[in-house]
């Protein structure tokens, strides 16, 4: 059990730092905003939990926040100043 835990932790850290070096700190931080969305979705899908209106509103706000922070769509539309 200890070996499995250590191996999983080492693998997770290696992947994390590889993604960090390729994508940058801002992009890797954006992934943390997806944790509550995936928890709600998996709870609904696997545990048959009720998906309520406030969950959908919250997930939509997170999606809008991710789009705003990422900035690629704003740059494509020419809204950004430079």
Put the structure in a nutshell:
79% of the residues lie in helices and 0% in strands.
Commentary on this structure:
By secondary structure, the chain is mainly α. It has one domain (24-82). The protein has five helices and no strands. It has helices at 2-23, 25-30, 34-46, 53-70, 72-77. Helix 3 runs antiparallel to helix 4 (53-70). The longest helix has 22 residues, at 2-23. The radius of gyration is 17 Å and the shape is flat. The mean pLDDT is 86.
Number of strands: 0
Strand content: under 5%
**Strand and helix order:** HHHHH
Mean pLDDT across the residues is 86
The helix content, as a percent range, equals: over 70%
- Counting copies of identical and different chains, the oligomeric state is single chain
What sort of overall outline do the alpha carbons produce when their principal axes are compared?
flat
Structural class: mainly alpha
- Uncertain segments: none
Largest sheet: none
Count of alpha/pi helices: 5
Summed up, the domain count is 1
The Cα radius of gyration reads 17 Å
State the distance separating the first and last CA atoms: 53 Å
What are the key terms here?
single chain, about 80 residues, about 0% strand
Secondary structure layout:
Layout: H1 2-23, H2 25-30, H3 34-46, H4 53-70, H5 72-77
Helix pairs in contact: 3-4
